[in-house]
Amino acid sequence: MSKPALSSTSIPISRVCAQVQTNGHSVPTHVAIIMDGNGRWARRRGLPRIEGHREGTRNVSRILDALGKHGIPYATFFAFSTENWNRPRVEVQAIMTILEETIDKETPTLVEKNVCFRYLGRTDRLTPQLRNAITRVLELTKNNTGLTLSVALDYGGRDEILQAVRQIASDGVPPEQIDGELLQRYLYTHDVPDPDLIVRTAGEHRLSNFLVWQSVYSEYYSSQVCWPDFDEAELAKALRAFSQRKRRFGALPPEE
User: Fold this and answer.
1) Catalytic residue, candidates 38, 65, 84, 104
2) Could you tell me the domains of the chain?
3) Active site residue 84
4) Per residue in 111-134, pLDDT tens?
């Protein structure tokens, strides 16, 4: 039976790691962000939607730096979903080009800043140029020991689980051996902790098929700001809100 090795940062680890202190407040170990509102940002400025996507990709590096300042070791950005293929063909093609150019441009910076890049999602529907850019950044940053940056591209939570189940069946795993820990080993996120905090911009409150398995005990934060305008101050608001949450994971504290 061939299966990915279970890393030390599996499900239980993520539930006890969010104890890092920044300015006296606990901060999450893993922040995941649904970057929403690029098109609306552009429309309000009389710009083509694609300019919103372009500015949105620029904002990733700014927020990544801000997360690093808070000592947060894991970050995941939702860049393109399995459902986004239903958008106009011209827009999809432009997004793929922007992503390719951005990854190529930012790879030397990621190497310099000791960031480990990870990819979550399918690759078979991407352009060859984008696949090559992803392969290159994965190879060049695989041994980096700083912040782990995961980019979810052509990603869907349900599809991730479906692909994992298919692989488990293909590997001939007996049904009685299948449990949550084993399924976790087959997910794209098998070697990163579950997100402690999921932030969505542009005032939306939906999960939109993002990290379906991994988010069962995540805290949520909705920002009214569109993604290109989501800055370090907005991030600080989200982290402050997280520090005030009481996380029980289904249990009760001793005093209750």
Assistant:
1) 84
2) 23-156+194-243 (3.40.1180.10)
3) yes
4) 999 999 999 999 999 999 999 999
